[in-house]
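Forum: Protein Structure Q&A
Topic: Joint prediction for protein chains with partners

I've read a bunch of threads here and the consensus seems to be that you should model interacting components together rather than docking separate models afterwards. I'd like to see that in practice. Below is the full input, 469 residues plus whatever partners are listed. Could one of the regulars post the assembled result?
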Amino acid sequence: MYSLKSFVIVALICTSLTVSSQNADSQQARLLVSKQVLNKLLVQDSDILVKYTIYNVGSVPATNVVLQDSGFPDEAFATVKGNLNIRFNRIPSGANVTHAVVIKPLTYGRFNFTAAVVQYKSSEGAEEPQFAISSEPGEGYIISYAEYDKKFSPHLLDWFVFAIMTLPAVVGPFMLWWVSKSKYELILKQKREKLSKD
Amino acid sequence: MEFKWMLLCLSLLAVSTGVARAEDEIDADEEMIVSEDQGLVETEGDESTIEDLEPTDADTYLLFTKPVFEEKASIELPAGRLSEFLVGFTNKGSNDLVLETLDASLRYPMDFNFHIQNFTTVLLEKTIPPGSQATLGYAFIPADAFAGRPFGLSINLAYRDYEGKQMISKLYNDTVNIIEVEEGLDGETLFLYVLMAAACVLLLVGGQQFLYSVSKKRVGGGLPSRTRANLETGTKTSKQIDMDWVPKNVLNHLNKQKAQSPKQKRVKKTD
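Posted by a regular:
Agreed with the consensus. Here's the joint model:
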């Protein structure tokens, strides 16, 4: 009798423990990290906007969130505005945070935009941080300023040279017409003066 | 009394096994094993197969970021516009997992084997250490022609474990609505408005012509209006002629002719 009772009690305790452990597993923060390069054209010595978005899809807030991006080496990129290492104290459940950094490429050529690393505490009582990596924008081509200038600049000097080169073709006929017109008008004026005198 | 305790024990056992079985079925439903000859073998729900398979060490999560949806709302994707989603992947095991490919496709909703539109398969080859998480980004554009119809959206993530065993996680396998984006002014609408404006102008011109003809009839009393024809009279006086452009020899010739004219001679004789 007692053995059965004790067995049932033990079974109940085990069940409750497993349920509580499952709940503890589900009661965790979970971060999805997106990294996006927003520029359509990547140009040497021109600003590039990089956007990081962290979504907490878990059921509890994420704490001590640290985002680090070592994908932009100092010899190839200069940070214009913002910080590539940033810390968020708390990201609530169901919320998302956005962080933007403006960088400037110092060289041109193909460049692989790698993932950023995020570490956070998935629950209040968690001792070890949870590591996560963001999405990768992938490979992009940074075009040289000369190449960009060739395609997209207003070409003011080129147009000025073109205007000077076309001047003889336009001014020559105009001058001939002007001389002829002024000569005719002079004769007409003299004729009218003569008639008025008569 | 003992019978009651026995019944309670049995019910507890049944509940616990039921929970375990349900979990196994979910795993079996979501995971597929790729055999050595690369053929997809979907795992069945029977005990023997589940025992043969090791429990999956991966945990996935799908989040649409563009367009943004309410939680548990029906997914509506705009035709001809970019749709984006993020995939969260957690390695819950004790060994590395290698993410291989992420692909998406639109299927015929009545038969998911019938592909309507395939999207890019992203090659990842990304190693996820034990206990770590990774986020994968994916973007696709449903074709304009599919607007206003439901389609099956299938999103699959392929990965392999340390032994090289390949698995495919079905991240999404449900029907979505492809909606037509209601823009303010497209080419078709603009052309329609231009056509309507042209028709209005035509009606106005027609009305004006009709009213003009009616008023003319009333004023004229039905008699035809007399219009004087403009006659070309030519140059009346010599002052209107500009002789500066006439060559000198022609002018001299004309002057000689004038001097020898008989009218002038007669006038001189009478004087």
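Chain B touches chain A through 27 residues (CB under 8 Å).
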